[in-house]
Write a structure and sequence with these properties.
heterodimer, A: mainly beta, six-stranded mixed sheet, globular, B: mainly beta, seven-stranded mixed sheet, four-stranded antiparallel sheet
């Protein structure tokens, strides 16, 4: 059974700091996705990672995938308040897409 | 502005009612998705249409019935829903192959079952 675990589930951090959100999954997959959701809003697709070693960057966010370790990271550089949101990772395998529980990120001014 | 339009934004219905949720996109995307999201939980995939054919059905109860009349439209027909079906229903679309292209999400329909 495919399981996806994120940690931490809640993160409060100061503006200007760096931090990393981790996403572990239980079975082999080469495809991992990151999404952002603002409170009371819909989802936004951030990154699609399709192979081992894939790295993608958008602004202050960088995502990477290590399929051998079954691990993806979402790194936040010099956080700003606008990045406060819930971040989900998701893995797909055999026509199933399973989401992690989400990381609620709160960035303090 | 979202490029995926969902209507209605809010829906309150009784357990014996029949209603439909609608989703429309004009980006030429050939994959369309329905997700259900309960409060403070991750989304759960319900259905996927690829090139207007149902390609994934995640064992969703038959009281939810999807329909894809054409490449731009996706409907979710609701009948005899239960209170636990109250949730945010999200539609998304993407180019080509299912999942591996970035999905564009609508604003969602907030459904309450009385």
């Amino acid at each position: 059974e495919l399981k996806v675990e994120q940690n931490p589930l809640f993160l409060s951090m100061q503006e200007g700091k760096n931090y990393t959100i981790y996403c572990n999954y239980s079975t082999t997959s080469d495809r991992l996705y990151w999404y952002r959701q603002d409170p009371g809003k819909s989802l936004e697709s951030l990154f699609v990672l399709l192979s081992n070693g894939a790295v993608k960057q958008e602004g202050r966010l960088m995502a990477s995938l290590d399929t051998k370790a079954r691990l993806s990271t979402l790194h936040i550089t010099a956080a700003v308040h606008d990045l406060s949101a819930t971040y989900f990772c998701a893995v797909d395998r055999d026509d199933k897409i399973i989401f992690g529980k989400g990381t609620r990120l709160h960035i303090l001014p | 502005d979202t490029e995926v339009t969902q209507t209605p934004k809010h829906l309150v219905m009784g357990m014996t009612n029949k209603k439909s949720l609608k989703c429309e996109q004009h980006m030429g995307h050939r994959a369309m998705y329905w997700y259900k999201q309960k409060a403070k939980k991750p989304p759960e995939l319900m259905f996927v249409y690829s090139y207007e054919k149902l390609s994934i059905n995640e064992s969703v109860p038959s009281r939810f019935s999807p329909e894809c009349p054409n490449s731009s439209l996706l409907n979710l027909h609701l009948h005899a829903l239960q209170p636990e079906d109250s949730a945010l229903y999200l539609c998304a679309s993407s180019q080509g192959t299912v999942f591996i292209q970035p999905q564009h999400f609508g604003d969602g329909t907030r459904l309450s079952i009385l």
